[in-house]
Amino acid sequence: MVYTLLEHLSDELLISVFEYLDAIHLYHAFSDLNTRFNHILNDSLLRLYFDSNSVRDCRDRCVFNRINQHQIISLTITSGPFLAYLKFHISTFINLQSIFFNSTNHSQDFLSELESLGKLRTLVVQNTLNECEFVRRIVFENELPQLRKFVYIPKVQHYSVEHVCLNDTTRNRSNNLEHMTIRNVHSSNLAGFLRKSSNLKYLNVSISDTLETGVLSSKLIYLNINLFRTTYDNLYQLLYLSPLLNLKQFELSGYGYDQKLLNGEKLRYLVSSLPSLRIFNVDMKINTTPSLEIKIATFENEKIYWKNLKWYIEGMYATLRAELF
């Protein structure tokens, strides 16, 4: 059957379509068109996504006041005039499951308001300048124990998460995070992050200096590490000391200064102790040296283990991409 009019779709299909739209835009388009659309907009099965950046004038604010806030499950918060209003009313979003703080340096001001949101599972903080205190309170203090996913991506790429200190009151407390993405972590803090996150199944981390040894969660299924000055031996120690019996996918990227990181045989040996590993991807930028082609040849010599081998020169660096299978 071919439908030529939107009104011919069932309520269930319309709800599925509406869930792709931002709540403000949805209400502007369909509110008060007819009784049926009003009924669908108020249906408890409808899950709404709201971006504070959509509220640009008084008309938008009036539309927002008509939205059933218990229908909102995802909220994006950006800097703007609506920020102060959300700070004092966010606790009314009782079914909120995910929050995205984008380009605002006031994320930690919301923390106390988020504690009552028992269904909140995902928290993303991105394009901010300095939220280290926020990271400390989430990861080390476990101020939001209901969280399962935490993503922190600072705006300035060279800025690192430094000087995050534990105190005596948090030594025996662990967070409940299962998924963590953190960009530009200072190595002195990585071991603490790992120690406080014993339930991690997914870890995506970029390290701003030489890697220090820590212990990864034994529950880890996915691991993505972006390196800066880390050596092969440090990376080997990290994997060797961690009982990664469940790890299925390992992504390794960054800048390679250690010649062992350019050796196909060494890299294969690096992951040989991971019994459940199914995918190992390498994407490294490497300082060009007279022995570069010799190192690359180690992948060719073991081509029964490696596939999709690609490398090319850009200025002072060579880019190497390979997959182990």
TrEMBL record:
<feature type="domain" description="F-box">
    <location>
        <begin position="3"/>
        <end position="53"/>
    </location>
</feature>
<protein>
    <recommendedName>
        <fullName>F-box domain-containing protein</fullName>
    </recommendedName>
</protein>
<dbReference type="InterPro" id="IPR001810">
    <property type="entry name" value="F-box_dom"/>
</dbReference>
